[in-house]
Amino acid sequence: MKRLAFITTIALFTVSLLQTNAIAAGKKNKKTQTFIVSMDCQGCVNKIEDNIPYEKGVKDLKVSLDNKECTLTYRTDKTNSEKLIEAFQKLGYKAEIKKEKNEVKSQNIEQGVGEHEGHNHNMKH
Ligand SMILES: [Cu+2]
Question: Does 34 reside within a domain?
Fold first, then answer.
């Protein structure tokens, strides 16, 4: 009788452990990261919204034109920040990972202006 209780405990423990791992794996594969993108008008936003969500591994995209920021949620087993930056470059935008906190806030504002040269989107908008 004692042995049965022991086996049941082990079985329950194993099941809960497997469930925890499954949940952890699902979360681990996803990452949300904000990129500073050299966009300047609604046309840029549209172009990004029409393309970036279809990049491999991209799960979610939020664009803030005011902050020149794109917040992406993506699967880390399918893509990475380098590939996403490349995807922005292919569209004609310079993108970089937003640094945490106020570290380089003033620098980012300066870059936002200067780096706009070479941004070329001769599209109707
Ligand atoms: Cu634009």
Answer: yes
pTM for the model: 0.64
In a domain, 67, yes or no: yes
CA of 23 to the centre of ligand 1 (A): 40
Total domains in the chain come to 1
Convert the pLDDT of each residue in 75-114 to its tens digit: 999 999 999 999 999 999 999 999 876 555 555 454 444 4
* d(CA 93, ligand 1 centre) in Å: 10
At 43, which amino acid appears? G
Distance 40 CA to ligand 1 centre (A): 5
The answer to whether the beta carbons of residues 98 and 107 sit under 8 Å apart is no
Gap between the Cα atoms of 11 and 81, Å rounded: 41
